[in-house]
Amino acid sequence: MLNKKLLFISHAEKDSVLVEKFVDLLYDMGVPEDSMFCSSISEIGVPVKEDIYEYLRNLLDSEQVIPIFMLSDNYYASAACLNEMGAVWMKQKDYYTFLLPDFEFSKIKGAINPSKRGISLWYKSERELQNLKEDLNQFREQMCNLFYIQKQKNWERKRDGFIKQIQGFKMDRDIIVINLEECEGFCIGEYENSGCSVIYDNIKDKIDSYIDFTKTKAEICSVVIFVGELDVSCHYSIGKKIMFELKAADSISNIEVECRLKNRDVRKKVVTSSDWESYSIPLPEFGGDISEWKSLKEIKFLLRRKNNSGGKIEIRNMKIK
User: Per-residue DSSP letters for 18-51?
Assistant: First the structure.
């Protein structure tokens, strides 16, 4: 039998990478290694030669064990996880619930009380981020009281690093592929003549644009890709990139890539090549406040008369990753 409190981290094997980050956070709080159990981490998992199921059953039978449920779609798809949940319910234990990315409170079912206050480790707004920080602060306070821990230094930096890791892991899976079909050419400020022709090639999934400044009085011609109202503020916060391939005529030396946000346009200049080149621009390099990146409406390619004489531009494979 256990003679002291033990955190039992109940999770799906498929979520083990994320759960390891959570265990690191517990270490950062000062929770002792011998006060944690996590089956996917050998040093705090089932000891060698022990019967796995018997060991887990004995742990969950103990009054000293405090379960922490790391809920996800993977969790509810795991028979082993549901058995652990049921065992906790049978013993009427107190427990903590954490929601992994993409799992909503509305999905909670089974033996876990959906009205019990849990902590979602994923945020979609600045307000939710601040709530998450405060929730983790409260959780830390409870861990310190439970295990008589002296508060560790640099907690906020470690907490924010953990949040960024979880957010980054989610973003690594979320690649936004930009649909190039919604495109159009504009000669900015001059509408009677068109020096910018834009055609979407649905066979090769690319944009072919033809810029001819002799056919317009405009100083700037633009290829505009309409993306709707994309919320990429989280992508912006962790440094994700706009990626694309571009090929330009020899007569074109540089192009500006511009993003239309909620309140303004932000842009970066790129040097072009007559061969296909891959470009990768971190969103923070464009500038703007994180709140403005909640609404990315257009991605544009600008060609200025003073720098170029015109020619053909081809664009393909655009994504935010």
Answer: HHHHHHHHHHHHT--GGGEE-TTSGGGSPPTTS-
Give the span between the Cα atoms of 220 and 186, in whole angstroms.
Answer: 9
How would DSSP label each residue in 242-277?
EEEEEEE-TT--EEEEEEE-SS-EEEEEEE--SS-E
User: How confident is the model over 91-103, as pLDDT tens digits?
Assistant: 777 899 999 988 8
Kindly state the helix (H) or strand (E) to which residue 235 belongs, with its residue range.
helix 233-237
State the residue for tokens 């993306």: 227
If you search the block for the tokens 């998450």, which residue do you land on?
Answer: 132
> Which H/E stretch holds residue 285?
helix 283-286
* Three-point CA angle 85, 40, 145, nearest 5°: 65
Which residues are annotated as catalytic? 84
Q: Which of 275, 237, 279 is nearest to 257 (CA)?
A: 279
Residue with tokens 């821990």, as numbered in its chain: 149
Rounded to an integer, the average pLDDT of 171-190 is 86
